[in-house]
Amino acid sequence: MSRPEFLDIPPLVGTAGTVRLPGSKSISNRVLLLAGLCAGTTRVHDLLDSDDTQVMLEALRALGCGIARDGDGLSVTGLGGRLVVREARLFLGNAGTAMRPLAAALALLSATQGGRFELSGVPRMHERPIGDLVDALRPLGCRIDCLGQEGYPPLRIDGGRLALDAPIRVRGDVSSQFLTALLMALPLVAQDRELIIDVEGELISRPYIEITLALLARFGIAVRRDGWQRFTIPRGAAYRSPGEIHVEGDASSASYFIAAGAIAATGEALRIEGVGSASIQGDIRFVEAARAMGADVREEANALIVQRGAWPLRAITLDCNHIPDAAMTLAVMALYADGPSRLTNIASWRVKETDRIAAMATELRKVGATVVEGADFIEVAPPARWRPAAIHTYDDHRMAMCASLAAFNPLAGGREPVRILDPRCVGKTFPGYFDALFGVAQAAPSSIPVLTVDGPTASGKGTLGSALADRLGYYHLDSGALYRATAVAALRAGLAPDDEAGTAALARCLPLRFESQRALLAGEDVTDTLRLEDVGNRASQIAALPAVRQTLVELQLGFRQLPGLVADGRDMGTVIFPDAALKVFLTASAETRAERRHKQLISKGIPASIQALCADLEARDARDQNRSIAPLKPAAEARLLDNSALSIEASVEQVLDWWESVQPFGAS
User: Fold this and answer.
1) Does 498 score more than 70 pLDDT?
2) Pick from 215-224, 384-393, 437-446, 473-482: least confident
3) Do 138 and 81 belong to one domain?
4) Residues 542 and 589 in one domain
5) Per-residue pLDDT for 534 more than 50?
6) 419 to each of 74, 90, 407, how far by Cα in Å?
7) Residue 449 preceded by cis peptide, ω within 30
8) In terms of residue numbers, what domain contains 522?
């Protein structure tokens, strides 16, 4: 599927099936850095492939680590605690799990071995505080300059002289990533003494520190903990590679599917694979919160099985310090509760990828919820009346994934679609999230939107349809390709043009699939073959055979899948999808179409004559317009688009303008 600027999700009515979670972001980036600090090679399995892990990998490469794909794993050859590269500029996107620990590790290595490094990110990263970590490192003798606003990235790290006699102090009430950064960096300089970290104030997001401690132990560092206020790194600590390590599925990502099951798994259960009772992630405790709201959740060691329990869900009041990221999902579950739900102790939301308290309050109000927000809490009451909404995501992956759950509103009295603006932001932790959601979500077929593009041969329907599908994030059906693929198969089988029964039987089991704008017939790429003139002529002939048409109609209807479909052909709007939300009839003069086809054929080394092509197109138009079954004509409500003088870009923009005019979202 494509990566559109927005994604419209139709009303969803159920869930069932199995989801396999991507690797945990929190574990993935910790493992990568620890492997990079070790001597030797660590083979990492099930690593998350996302924006955040990519910037960490690029940073490790820039610092001299060896990174190699190794079958289904990734091999990291580490630095052994020694700087190989002593000057680098590292871009870390919006990845706090890369910026904070890399800053600490490079500050200590630079102060002991010499080195100059600049760490920067996207504008939002430069708004995320790092001052408490810098304030903990500077008294140790690390030279760190904030190149913009004091206390925020970008940073310049430039040598220093370490003084490690006193305990290191760090605040714990802003972000647990500061403590994680110190815990991961200090073993690099603990050869001749034990090092003590004292946490000032209440430590928030404690489960993430538990992840850090567990992974440090896997890499040979046994940190002693005195409550949550003092951590001691033993003298002589040294990183040792475990050789191989597996990254478990992301528990925060599991929360969206736990919620979907609690809301909509009314028949078959929803199975979530990758995390379970054996998880080391604190966000697995989201299961407890979901059960409190009424979810029926069964746990296996590495899987969760979810069904709807109480309905409506039960409103809750909950201190969410133990599940800071997953708690965002509870705010959306509250839309389906029997009263207001209050989530407290979530001050850390305000210093994440965006101010999540403010963002969540703003966007949930759009769907009709009543929301009260405070410095460290949010209270959500379900909508009295659901409204269609275009949800801003603020370049925050969790906002996008949470918001998608509002599309289940038909189960709570609504019938409204939800638009997710910039759905691409899920690439930070779960690039395949929407494909995974649509793989288990259910919708009434009539509610799945369809946009049809009909028109005569060589009018550019396929090109326009493909471009529209990319922009909308929808599936694409090139109905002509189905007929042409059937024609190819019939020609190869030696069937006569009027062999209706034989051609229909062949079409019924046609081994055709579309993949990245290619047509594969029995695994063979026939994309160019489908454009040959003899294939087009045979396709036009078999299109008039009723049994063949009926077989292919059934196949075409099956392309109507979540989140939507762009279908192009000659009768998509009149016969196949008469309920399409928008119907376009694309036209161009026969001369223009002949010129386009001529250029296309010549570019592929296929000889052709413009005059012959024009005559053939005019004859085919007449045949298509006068055939007894589904003659070529605009649907009564179709928008006519003559693209004779239009570029493909202009045609796409015109159709998207029409598409917006039939959507319920209004200005976004």
Assistant:
1) yes
2) 473-482
3) yes
4) no
5) yes
6) 36, 35, 9
7) no
8) 480-561
- Looking at the fold, whether 425 and 453 belong to one and the same domain comes out as no
Shared-domain flag, residues 363 and 492:
no
Residues 303 and 264: beta-carbon distance below 8 Å: no
Q: What are phi and psi of 78, to 5 degrees?
A: -85, 180
State the Cα–Cα distance between residues 148 and 416, nearest whole angstrom.
44
CA neighbours closer than 13 Å in the CB half-sphere of residue 309: 15
CA-to-CA separations, 214 to 219, 220, 227, 282, in angstroms, rounded: 9, 10, 16, 12
Q: If DSSP codes are grouped into helix, strand and coil, which group holds residue 292?
A: helix
Domain boundary among 246, 277, 297: 246
The catalytically annotated residue of 46, 51, 250, 325 is: 325
Q: Of the candidates 177, 181, 176, which has an alpha carbon nearest to the alpha carbon of residue 203? A: 176
DSSP secondary-structure letter at 642? E
Please tell me the pTM assigned to this model: 0.85
Q: How many domains does the chain have?
A: 4
Pairing of strands 475-478, 41-45: unpaired
* C-alpha pair distances (Å), 268 with each of 264, 276, 439, 441: 10, 19, 14, 12
- Domain-ending residue, one of 224, 246, 268: 246
**CATH at 456:** 3.40.50.300
- Neighbouring CB atoms inside 10 A of 40's CB total 13
Beta strands in 124-222 (DSSP E): 142-146, 155-160, 168-171, 195-200
Asked if 572 and 551 sit in the same domain, the reply is no
Q: Are 234 and 379 in contact (CB under 8 A)?
A: no
pLDDT value of position 594: 64
Report the pLDDT value the prediction gives residue 460, as an integer from 0 to 100: 86
Residue 367 in contact with residue 389, Cβ under 8 Å? yes
Active-site annotation holds for 325: yes
Give the sign of the dihedral formed by CA 19, CA 25, CA 29, CA 31: negative
pLDDT digits (tens, 9 = 90+) for 272-321: 999 999 999 999 999 999 999 999 999 999 999 999 999 999 999 999 99
Residue 414 sits in the same domain as residue 503: no
User: Are 495 and 463 found together in one domain?
Assistant: no
The contacts of residue 126 (CB under 8 Å, 6+ apart) are 120, 148, 149, 152, 153, 154
| pLDDT number for residue 386 | 98
Helix/strand/coil for 96: helix
